[in-house]
Amino acid sequence: xxxxxxxxxxxxxxxxxxxxxxxxxxxxxxxxxxxxxxxxxxxxxxxxxxxxxxxxxxxxxxxxxxxxxxxxxxxxxxxxxxxxxxxxxxxxxxxxxxxxxxxxxxxxxxxxxxxxxxxxxxxxxxxxxxxxxxxxxxxxxxxxxxxxxxxxxxxxxxxxxxxxxxxxxxxxxxxxxxxxxxxxxxxxxxxxxxxxxxxxxxxxxxxxxxxxxxxxxxxxxxxxxxxxxxxxxxxxxxxxxxxxxxxxxxxxxxx
Length: 255
Known about the structure:
By secondary structure, the protein is an alpha/beta fold. The chain contains 8 helices and 9 strands.
């Protein structure tokens, strides 16, 4: 399905990002670079993926892509190790717990925006010259439905996620003449991740998302299911799809 494509997954050492890396390799990607900040976790993820897909090229680039210099270094390393970037998946940030604004110290807010929003914008900007030079590629950003639906405790997180959505749509408009497609996934609660466990264990966030889960009449979405949608968007089957913000929520919302 992916016919030897080379993919970069930021935030790819755990959670949704790692699930995307695994799904890409299972769908025929020729190689994947996973990015993270923890060297031990990154190496464990790399080794597990390489063991499962021995014929693929699996490499790591460490760095906090919320910093411009790190984002540029990661994409340069991808070009060095993989030779090209066909697909960029940004699964960074989004790990802050919901908290009501009046309980959020002003000093906390820049960090939330940096982790959730800046990392994805900077990663795209750093990869863009390579995608343009190659004559195209697919960008898949992962935000959340907090960017579409106002939710108690997610005023700042929602602002960041809405920023990712609008950024991705504008990138799609700018990139189409260079053959670059850009879409964004906006899940709600996603099972099978450390963040899911953290959210559900929190007294405030757990109450909110327990209610959300009851609305998922089609079932709570797993990280593997979300990764499957990312594979589709990266494939030739989605060659005409760009600028879309796609919710996958099991029925929690219908936006």
